[in-house]
Write the structure tokens for this entry.
Amino acid sequence: QVQLVESGGGLVQAGGSLRLSCLASGRIFSGYGMGWFRQAPGKEREFVGAISWSGTKTSYTDSVKGRFTISRDNAKNTVYLQMNSLKPEDTAVYYCTIDRTRWRTTGDVRLMDTYDYWGQGTQVTVSP
């Protein structure tokens, strides 16, 4: 069993920054890919970015490229989402997720079905 707990959300003005953290508990963390998704009110949950098990590969949705950075610290069982130059349209609940079905390999990181455990989410609100 794996538990994912996000933290670091909050209210920030447009142009500001936040760093989200996701702490994983349970069994092995380091061999699995991780992802971040978000869901705005009235919208479907969407892919934000992902990081490979080793941390050497990352991918992002176009709207956050150049502004968001995903990293991980396997020794701390933690993955991070650094968000800079935030915009009001980034307002959403942000979810951390892990793909524990693939050991040291990668599925289609943009699909929700790739992942099997999810955190409860953390709210990010960006004011104009």
